[in-house]
Write a structure and sequence with these properties.
There is one protein chain. The chain has about 110 residues and is of the alpha+beta class. The protein has a single domain, classed as OB fold (Dihydrolipoamide Acetyltransferase, E2P) (Beta Barrel), CATH 2.40.50. It contains two helices and five strands, in the order αβαββββ. A five-stranded mixed β-barrel has the order 1-2-3-5-4. Strand 2 and strand 3 form a beta hairpin. The longest helix is centred in the first third of the chain and has 22 residues.
Length: about 110
């Protein structure tokens, strides 16, 4: 009987963790910029952002409404969107001020 109780508790725990992980993602709109310029010209400096990133700067996500700059912990996810206006689905880490992007779609060039 104890084995069944332990198994049930473990199953509930795993389900809770999976549900929490699924709920922690966010859908955000903004721009892919570079770490040096950040929000300075988000929306107007696509060529500059692309040039800076290709020159070695790290890509960042600039949230559209608050102009907050977030580091991208998986920069390969945005390699086709440098300097572009995008909609992303991401898991934010507020403590590190970073996002892990799971999907990105370009809103405008």
């Amino acid at each position: 009987m104890k084995k069944i109780a332990v198994f049930a508790l473990a199953l509930v725990s795993v389900a809770s963790v999976a549900a929490y992980a699924a709920d922690s993602s966010a859908k955000l709109n903004g721009y892919i910029s570079d770490a040096m310029c950040g929000a300075k010209h988000a929306g107007t400096g696509a060529a500059c952002a692309k040039k800076c990133i290709e020159g070695g700067e790290k890509p960042v996500f600039v949230e559209e409404s608050k102009k907050e700059v977030w580091a991208i912990d998986n920069p390969e996810a945005v390699k086709e969107a440098y300097g572009k206006h995008v909609a992303i689905t991401a898991t934010p880490d507020a403590a590190a001020k970073s996002v892990h992007i799971t999907s990105v779609s370009v809103i405008a060039e």
